[in-house]
Amino acid sequence: MNTKAILLFCASLLLNFSCKHENKITHTPEAAHSQHWSYTGETSPEHWVEIEKNSDCNGKYQSPINIIDKDTDSVKTKDNLKILYSPTTLLSKVINNGHSIQFDFEAGDSISYKNEIFHLKQIHFHEPSEHKINGIIYPIEMHLVHLSKTGKITVLGILGEEGNQSPLFEFFESFIPLENGATKDIHQKIDLSSLFLEDKNYYSYDGSLTTPPCTENVNWVVFKQPIILSVDEVIKLKNNMPLNNYRNEQALNNRIVKLNY
Length: 261
Hints:
disordered N terminus; single chain; alpha+beta
């Protein structure tokens, strides 16, 4: 092999090594920056805007909020909400998704809100509560997430107060503990009528999901009267979820909160 051929061969090897090395370095920073949201540290709610680039987390109509009674608009529109829950609806499964304990439902339960039907998809929990009423933080908050056929979302927020034992929460907690990332099939009947939601006054406002992507245009219904559950039930839920899995209070930004009675 002459000198010219040797030089060309060496140059080819050098170029090939350089390209492979460059490709390896290019992909490393992307992997290093692939973060997922959480409730602590550098991926806590204060940083969701930074790590969830295509989300609504920096929008003007975010949730949760602090509901101040004296600033609400009291209206006789309680009939806008009709609870259509069935005693034979089946719980499909329970999931520990790393953010909360979530119960998924099979088809059956639904609500009518402002003359539109929303189907109950899942229930999950936050501790302590995400919404405040007159600055008061409750030990637990339960979110009942409903979806319409057109993709609209209505979430019922129910605050929990410590007191007597709750048979409903005993039923929920019979399926935990559950390891992070684990799923357990249930397929058992559940009757949510013990919540007596149709008898309660509620606040309503336009907001967002309280977890990324923080989707806005969510109908929020937050019941004024809390449900009662025992201290042990609160502790059991708390021990099976991330500590303090709540989003910080969001600015109202001139939104009107209604007290429906």
